[in-house]
Amino acid sequence: MIEKKELLKIVVIILVVAAGITGYITYKNYRMSQMDKYMIQASQLTPEYNMTLREATAYATAGNYDMAIVKIDKLIKMTDEIVSLQWKAHQYADGPYKAIIELILERNHLYRQSLELWKEQLECLKMGGLRDGARAGEPDQ
User: Fold this and answer.
1) What are the pLDDT digits (tens) for 18-37?
2) Can you give the residue ranges of every domain in the chain?
3) Tens of pLDDT, residues 84-139
4) 42 exposed, middle or buried (CB, 10 Å; 0-12, 13-18, 19+)?
5) How far apart are CA 39 and CA 81, in angstroms?
6) Residue-level pLDDT at 130
7) Which of left, alpha, beta for 130 (phi over 0: left; psi -120 to 50: alpha)?
8) What integer pLDDT is reported at residue 141 of this predicted model?
9) Residues sharing a CB contact under 8 Å with residue 69, sequence separation 6 or more, in sequence order
10) Please, are residues 108 and 83 in contact by the beta-carbon 8 Å criterion?
11) In angstroms, rounded to a whole number, what is the distance separating the alpha carbons of residues 97 and 28?
């Protein structure tokens, strides 16, 4: 028959293992919930972002470069905020989620660069530095 001391050791070992497993699962769930929280916050900025992008495009198309530049500046700031939230999510991500968020961060980095280039083009157009054909991608003659 098992002595009480040995039985107590076995019960303590089982409790320690169960507590460790429970802690691991709880921590993993916490990390996933934090990742989800930050990605949701980033995605909630999308409707406003898309509306601002449409406005910038409309202003640029109409030749109102000053307002288009203001909207592009707002888009750049929003992109920075989205990237910041996605970076926080990346800190909590594991496995394939981490890889996907890295791709999203890279895409947003490239998109931010394209916004900066668009702004530079509009500033050149505003100063008369580009022909209208150059804006459409036509070669100089």
Assistant:
1) 999 998 888 888 999 999 99
2) 34-129
3) 999 999 999 998 999 999 999 999 999 999 999 999 999 998 888 655 555 444 44
4) buried
5) 12
6) 59
7) beta
8) 39
9) 119, 122, 123, 126
10) yes
11) 13
